[in-house]
Amino acid sequence: MLDNGFPLATESNILKELIKPPTILRTVVNTITGSTNVGDQLPTGQLSVVPWRRTGVKYTNNEAYFDVIEEIDAIIDKSGSTITAEIQGVIDACVKLTGMPDLTLSFMNPRLLDDVSFHPCVRFKRWESERILSFIPPDGNFRLLSYHVSAQNLVAIPVYVKHNISFRDSSSLGRFEITVGPKQTMGKTIEGVTVTSQMPKGVLNMSLTPSQGTHTFDPVTKMLSWDVGKINPQKLPSLKGTMSLQAGASKPDENPTINLQFKIQQLAISGLKVNRLDMYGEKYKPF
Amino acid sequence: MSAAPAYSEDKGGSAGPGEPEYGHDPASGGIFSSDYKRHDDLKEMLDTNKDSLKLEAMKRIVAMIARGKNASDLFPAVVKNVACKNIEVKKLVYVYLVRYAEEQQDLALLSISTFQRGLKDPNQLIRASALRVLSSIRVPIIVPIMMLAIKEAASDMSPYVRKTAAHAIPKLYSLDSDQKDQLIEVIEKLLADKTTLVAGSVVMAFEEVCPERIDLIHKNYRKLCNLLIDVEEWGQVVIISMLTRYARTQFLSPTQNESLLEENAEKAFYGSEEDEAKGAGSEETAAAAAPSRKPYVMDPDHRLLLRNTKPLLQSRSAAVVMAVAQLYFHLAPKAEVGVIAKALVRLLRSHSEVQYVVLQNVATMSIKRRGMFEPYLKSFYIRSTDPTQIKILKLEVLTNLANETNIPTVLREFQTYIRSMDKDFVAATIQAIGRCATNIGRVRDTCLNGLVQLLSNRDELVVAESVVVIKKLLQMQPAQHGEIIKHLAKLTDNIQVPMARASILWLIGEYCEHVPRIAPDVLRKMAKSFTAEEDIVKLQVINLAAKLYLTNSKQTKLLTQYVLSLAKYDQNYDIRDRARFTRQLIVPSEQGGALSRHAKKLFLAPKPAPVLESSFKDRDHFQLGSLSHLLNAKATGYQELPDWPEEAPDPSVRNVEVPEWTKCSNREKRKEKEKPFYSDSEGESGPTESADSDPESESESDSKSSSESGSGESSSESDNEDQDEDEEKGRGSESEQSEEDGKRKTKKKVPERKGEASSSDEGSDSSSSSSESEMTSESEEEQLEPASWSRKTPPSSKSAPATKEISLLDLEDFTPPSVQPVSPPAIVSTSLAADLEGLTLTDSTLVPSLLSPVSGVGRQELLHRVAGEGLAVDYTFSRQPFSGDPHMVSVHIHFSNSSDTPIKGLHVGTPKLPAGISIQEFPEIESLAPGESATAVMGINFCDSTQAANFQLCTQTRQFYVSIQPPVGELMAPVFMSENEFKKEQGKLMGMNEITEKLMLPDTCRSDHIVVQKVTATANLGRVPCGTSDEYRFAGRTLTGGSLVLLTLDARPAGAAQLTVNSEKMVIGTMLVKDVIQALTQ
Question: What is the pTM of this model?
Fold first, then answer.
């Protein structure tokens, strides 16, 4: 919400107070009663000292969930050695607690966190002095903090890609083969693997057979994408086939880059561990 | 949106089947043809009594406005509804009004009275939104009304309304800039506001209306710095950029004396970044040490700004991080700028738009402060998924960061980039390699070889770019590279890119003496294809021909003439012109010749090598993070960042009358500490004692007076003491009057006091050792505290019964060795820490009066002189940590011998103690002469209970059974904590652990300092700063168990008050409540 171009309210809790987010139930109710999603109460949240939290929050089930999500971002050269790799993490929370709870979250190994940025609710001084996250949470979903794990720590990339892509000068056919395999996954399965690669302009089409998953090649954008799914360590997924190149043209001298995305559930790659979560300020037991 | 289906159904119902168009979504078009009948419908709907119809109509009208259709003819119908009860309709009417009021000014006036009514609404939200809409209506006639409304709202109770007032200021200013002076008054008033809600908005108004009135900021500077962290994010951005400008005008450049700094003060105060006060201290020492050299001393306010903005680097908002980064870049000393690098690198993980802006700024920063980003080199490596703009900016940064040590890795990275599919990026990479080669001499040959290899690349663009870069590189050292030029000459057959061809031709022409055989041949080829060439190539062909004609006219004379003739008839006049000009110069004609003699000099003059520079080189004259910096052009409304002043303007303009800023007091504290004079006589010369005269100065029996301050005088026994008392009293009141400038008074008064002391009037002397005086909750007193506290021990142990006439010096000898002055550094550091905490506290109204405890309760009798056969013993709780064991309460035992014979061998005999209680005995006093007195310190661990410690006091001849029972208030030690910590701790100690009692405060103790004094006299607690003036908070820990004791006194008007004690030890809590209430209500 802006006033004369200056942001007046950007906190989602206040905005939700003004216009309630649509839910199925509310849509039904609105249809019947003819009311709208526009809040009929004055947005008192703007007046509060903790603008991120609505007042008078009530839940029958008090619960709080915290998700630690970490991303590895790595550049790997064609021989498989890591050029740069960094771990970026966020802690997303879904807090549904009655009243004005005051939470503290502590880590087993807070030293890991090299660079952090907080939701404004986090008390910075507590973090500076004790490395504890102390905060009055906003209601609902929010991003508690995002952090960066120092680049000094070597990052073990949990997957590898074997590739063999070759263009021959004379023929109009090229060979293409990729295999994806797990590496240091600590017993967890690698899921949601997708491989995408931008092929050089000279590639007209590709005829490939995957050992699992589905693949598509867009001859216009020259984008190859392969949806692999889970990796079974016994039977590594691979994608093999040939590329048909523009006849007569010399072989393309660019190297296609391969982008690989994957997910591992229940694993924080940096080894970050949450120690405990305490709640103060409210009398009920949340969990 | 989910509302859509419901809404269309509604409409179907209301409009009836006859008008099916009604069912359309208002935004879908078609129904808003410029048919006036439609508007009649709307008018009808607006005129009905049904809110739902009105709402419907308003929705459609607003949708029309959004689509750019004219809905102004509905104005009268809409304005009527401004008084509608339905909030939703009202809101939409407001939207309409803001859009059309300017066009229909007369009619708009009809709505004004509604807003004026709204401005008086009891609900702050309605007041605020009435003002918001009123100020958005751009009708010049209502300017006076708006002005009035803004002025009124600026002094509204609700900070939210005041915030809205601040928002309204720029709106009014843009409507009528003649109001500036009045508006500045309002801004000035709002700037003084202490709430975080207002701060951001008013600074925004300040920036819009009167950015040049920097003098308005002075008084509020420290407040803004301290509030900054709690302001909402958008406000932070505005405040930070305003403070950057402010600091540039008010402080000296931290980099001006770099060289001096390095050797002198670097360690002294850069090392103490986090500890401001310490820094300030060493500043002063540095200044004192080398006044002649005048090293740069950072203004404490400058430091305050840097320190308070630093945590904001951790903000989730990229704008705030960027704002802090530019602040540090522009204001911080070189050594500290580095902290921003990490945060900026973090922003690179954000959306590409954010990345773009951040990288632009990083590129500028990395030119000036390369070292800052070097550790993060790898973070700027390019990802294949980056958009081209980002890639090019990252390249820029990588090139800026490249140096002797990291160039191999950078070049290897560049090599990979060259094979990218993004051709623009490849071209940029080649240029980057060129820049690396020029900047770092060591790798020039490697780069050149690499570039030459690229010449065989199949991609023309790559080759062309390489040629251009090679040309620039070769210009630096042409002699050694004949081979490369030959190679390039061969390329002319293949390369088609005009720029590259032109570059090659220029190179051959320039260095034709290195390739004497090939050059004419190239010219021959070019002459053949001359007509087909691009203009830029043609020009270079003429150029080449001219140069060859001058150096090798035998072989090329004909060719040159041929080329010139071709050019003479070229379509492009530029080329024709050039040809004519060249011919006149080089071909000697009959009459001319003056010029042609110098033709060689003209054409083949040695040319300076081009400098390959970053395009970000001189962007830093724009304020980083600004739009102007991003565009590299001055945007409208850009405020030039002023240069540092030569001389620092007077820093005292920022002083606020009320000394509520811990920081300034800190500074003064330091000053005081340095003066030996003070530390010597501090204890004896406290000029600030309140009406309360110290119990210790009085005769032994006057022990009760301690708990009731101010009553000491009346209860004093001996007459001569009384006189002293009166004197004291007079002086005390005097110093009370002058509490405000107590410090200056101090200096003046000390001599007087000294004189008195030397006149052996030890009554007044020891009385002044009282630290009770320091409770007058003035921050200035607080400064004295650590110093005086550290010195407190000797005087208090010295203080002897009044009846004995012993001079101070003699007493010194009697001070038992076990009486150790509390180690000053420890105390200083704790109180410092507390001070610093006070600084960052949210509420600025705080008086950070973290009073340290007062030297305990008055004397209690241990052994009466009759019972003790001449030996009188009494004790006091000194409230200092006992040196041997931190869990022990230190008790000062005062012996005085009023018998005729010396008492020998005073010691503690076998104590009979309840479980848990232990005693650290005092060393044996060998002899106490008649009339003499002595003091010893013993430690007692009471185990957090008020049980009495019973023990025997033995002399050589007798044994006395004595017992010491501690008041509950002595079983604890003060703890320093901030308000927030206090609240948090209090939150943990609810329910059973909380004891609340109501009481009536008598008239005598309604003033702040009396309450504080009474509480701290009763219990050894530390004051916790508190936001509201009627609440007093104290905190302590029990000595043995270390459990927290939190005391809150909530004084309401008319004397009613509520006392709350939170403690795990409920017994202690209950007793404490009782004691405090007794003390307060007496």
Answer: 0.62
